[in-house]
Amino acid sequence: MIEILPETRNNMLAVRISDELTVDDFDQYRNLLRDLMQRYKEAHLFYEMVNVDWVQPVAAIENGMFDVIHGLDYGRVAMVGEKKWQEWAAKLISPVKKKGVRYFDLAEREQAMKWVQEGE
């Protein structure tokens, strides 16, 4: 399931993924992000994962392809999670994004949000 967080504004998309990431969830996320990328020079992303048990393989592949195609349109990207595989996923996708991906543990959520909003 995908939830658009209230911190979403201007050129920043903030989402929370929970339970299972489906193709429909990814389509919604991708359309919002693509819209930001068309309106702004770069789009910042806050991506939080809580209790994510499964990512549908097609959604994962589509997400990877979107990242490769639009990697230079990303600004700061924070990935917040609670499992080791999520940290590995952040490291795996980091090279295709212009400024990489910074991973934060769920306990560091506020720090991650501040970094995405304000930078260093």
TrEMBL record:
Name of the featured protein: Universal stress protein UspA
Residue spans crossing the bilayer: none
Pfam families associated with the record: SpoIIAA-like (PF11964)
Gene source species: Pontibacter korlensis
